[in-house]
Amino acid sequence: TGEVKFCDISFRYGDNMPFVLNGLNLHIKAGETIALVGPSGGGKSTLVKLLLRLYDPLSGCILIDNHNIQDIRLDNLRRHISFVSQDITLFSGSVAENIGYRDLMSKIDMERVEHAARTANADEFIRKLPEGYKTNIGPRGSILSGGQKQRLALARALYQNSSILILDEATSALDSRSELLVRQAVERMMENHTVLVIAHRLETVLMAKRVFLLRDGKLEELTRSTLLGGHH
Ligand code: ADP
Ligand code: ADP
């Protein structure tokens, strides 16, 4: 599972606004990793927001495993698809609670949390923080670094059995060790997840099987030679 199809999607933020997406098509096979690149303001985040149903398209449809996402209950959709970025929202609670938050109201399976944390390279800070330690300091602050938040989000995705990962690569540089740990975790998870990565760095782009440029509301597949030549 984890096949995603965008069929002829058009979208704009308001009646008199320009189209952000205009007749866009994309078919991601289950288990495939694709990278999305393009100019700032080109619509990459918008595409992700439509997939998560923060907005609905003006026309066209989005299918996950051949189900129209309009027919999927929002909580199921959000469990199926995990959004991973350095800006994920944590709630006040331990790292373990943030990883297992799907079961917060029932009972978090600590063994699964530990296993997910190991796979996502999040185990070093899950142990450092005592149970009940608050991950948030105020509405914006956090004691976790951007890279740690990405790894926490990956662990959360594993815990809740998401089949689709959406990665928003940091535009600001993480330190190189943290970046390596994120990349390594993602590479592990690529083996059994569908991955859509909004990529900014060439090495991230090259992790993907296929690369698409989002420009003028449409996608254009880029070949490896175009990418390495650096002219598009
Ligand atoms: P990217 O992620 O590629 O940088 P975005 O999807 O964030 O691009 O933005 C695409 C276009 O939509 C931009 O022109 C942006 O200003 C506009 N946009 C994004 N979000 C909104 C919004 N909530 N309301 C109005 N316009 C928006
Ligand atoms: P992101 O693209 O990661 O959502 P942004 O910094 O682009 O983050 O946008 C922050 C917020 O402002 C988002 O909720 C986005 O939808 C909104 N936004 C972005 N561009 C515009 C715009 N041109 N007009 C109105 N809202 C916008």
The ligands bound in this entry are: adenosine-5'-diphosphate
Q: What percentage of residues falls in helices of 4 or more residues?
A: 25-40%
In N-to-C order, the SSE pattern is EEEHEEHEHHHEEHEHEHEEH
Amount of beta strand: 25-35%
Helices and strands, with pairings:
Blueprint lengths: L3 E8 L9 E8 L4 E5 L6 H8 L7 E6 L2 E2 L5 H7 E4 L10 H5 L10 H10 L3 H6 L7 E2 L3 E2 L3 H14 L4 E5 L7 H15 L3 E5 L3 H4 L4 E6 L2 E5 L1 H6 L3
Parallel strand pairs: 3-10, 3-11, 6-9, 9-10
Antiparallel strand pairs: 1-2, 1-4, 4-5, 7-8, 11-12
The structure holds adenosine-5'-diphosphate (2 copies).
Q: Can you offer a commentary on this structure?
A:
The chain has helices spanning 44-51, 74-80, 95-99, 110-119, 123-128, 146-159, 176-190, 202-205, 224-229, and strands at residues 4-11, 21-28, 33-37, 59-64, 67-68, 81-84, 136-137, 141-142, 164-168, 194-198, 210-215, 218-222. The chain is built from nine helices and twelve strands. 32% of the residues lie in helices and 25% in strands. The longest helix is centred in the C-terminal third of the chain and has 15 residues, at 176-190. Mean pLDDT is 90; it is low at 137-141. It is an alpha/beta fold and 232 residues long.
